[in-house]
Structure formats: structure tokens, C-alpha cells
Amino acid sequence: MSIKWEGVMPAVTTKFTENDELDLKTFKVNIQAQLDAGVHGIVLGGTLGEASTLTDSEKRTLTRETVAFVKGKVPVLINIAEQSTKEAIHCAKKAEEDGAQGLMLLPPMRYKACDNETVAYFKAIANSTSLPIMIYNNPVDYKIEVTLDMFDELLEACPNIEAVKESTRDITNITRIKNRFGDRLKILTGVDTIALESLIMGADGWVAGLVCAFPKETCAIYELQKAGRIKEAIEINRWFLPLLELDINPKLVQNIKLAEVATGIGTENVRAPRLPLHGEERKHVLKVIEDGLKNRPTLPEYKNL
């Protein structure tokens, strides 16, 4: 089983009904929009997917339903964000049983593991599964950094650790990773606001957030820069930036779900303790979305460049 670690991989939102159950109908409307736009993979159960609020049964349902719906067109990955090594290994086993083609791994949750503990955690999970793995490196939000020396140890011990979701916010880290590991460790940028810059500096792909509401624009930026049409990619990115900034916010889930409503491929329903936006905060986000839609660019034909 292998994954081509490149292109746009949406970290999709989880859709809920008014009764706080999985809304698979709306979820599949969004997934179809992603496929139509030309995405290269689907990432389930990340931060944007409200992973911490999902039951084990719901995660398994999302995985099975997505795998069945996508029908092999793109790989389906499931995020693992657990408090114990034992439970993370259990989740990896279930993901494989449910047909996932890959895993995204976060460091241990709640406990701030040291470097040695973090490496041991990742090794134990990787050695328990045949699935290819992308390590999610986000020290800003999760307080644990996976350093290059740690990756050195992981890559030597675990052939199925193949990629990193690079979210340190330090674009120069892309060059450091490339200089150290070449193509052994594929890089997918994980921060929407610096995604284009990261791709130009050598990132192989983009695990994206606002793609959930604007799949075509996101894929256009990726394909244009890949084809060397940087000026056109920059023009779209300049329009996109105020929307992309909705992703680097504690309420990114509510923000992006509001954007999905505006583009007709989602609902606003979130799971408590999250609540829908209200007051001035809601007005601000709606204004950003409204301005974006008002000035939405006409995209060039970006497929098959």
C-alpha cells in the first residue's frame, strides 16, 4: 500500500445534524465537491474534523463511508490523536481494518512528552501497522516539536513514516528538511496562510483547511504553482488570504463551517463544547466571507497543466 504524498489533501470537517448525529448526506456533498475540484487525498478526523469530540464508532463510520464513497480515486487518511500509546495502536489497527490508506499521527495528547518519549510513541504506532504515515508537526498548537534529529531516528527505524505535515510556521524549515532528507521525507504544508510560499520553497503538497469551502481555488493555486505559473497563483492567493486567515484562529472550525454554508457545501452545525459564532465575532467572519465571494476570481483551466 502506497501514497503519493503530493497535491491538495483537505482536512475535511465532520458534518453533524441538528440532533448532533453524523450528517453523512451533507458530508458526501462536500467530499464530492473536493473530488470534482481535483484534490489528491482526504484527511479525516483532524482538528478541523472535531476529532476530540468524535466517538470511536463515529470515526470508524466516517472512515468506512469515505472509503466506499471515494472508490479509490484518492487515498483516505485518518488522523490519530490519542492520550496513550496503547489506544493509538488500537486506532491504527481499526483504521487498517476500515480501509484507510494512510495515517496522520499527532504526538501524545495532554501529556507533554519529551523527545525520547515522543519518538518511542511514534515508533510503536508505526511498527504496529503497514499503513504509510504522515507525522503532524505542529508545536504552536500542540506544544511538542518533532525536530530534525527526531525525524532522523524515526526514518531510520520506520520505513512507513514517509511524510510530515509541516506546521511549525517557519518556512525555512522546509529547506532544512529537504537538505537533510531529500525525498525520503515528503513535506505537506499545514498552514493555509503560508501554503503558497511553502510550495514554492519545495513543499510537496498542502493539507488544507479553507479548501473545505473553496476546493477549486485551493487546487488552482497548487496546480498553477506546480506548472510554474507563479504569477497567476499569487493573484489568486492574494484574493484568498483574508479567507485563509480564518484557519489560523481558535475557532477555525466554526469559521470554516460558516464558509461552507456560504458556498453551499456544508452546514454550520458544530459539536459542543463548540458553539456557533455569534455577535460581533460572527459579523466579522461573515463579512470576510461575503467580501471574498463578492470578489471571487475567475479561475483559469488548472487541471492537466
From TrEMBL:
Keyword Lyase among record annotations: yes
Record has Amino-acid biosynthesis as a keyword: no
Source organism, top-level taxon: Bacteria
Alphabetical keyword list: Lyase
Xref: SUPFAM superfamilies: Aldolase
InterPro entries recorded: Aldolase_TIM, DapA-like
Sequence similarity: Belongs to the DapA family.
Stated name of the protein: Dihydrodipicolinate synthase family protein
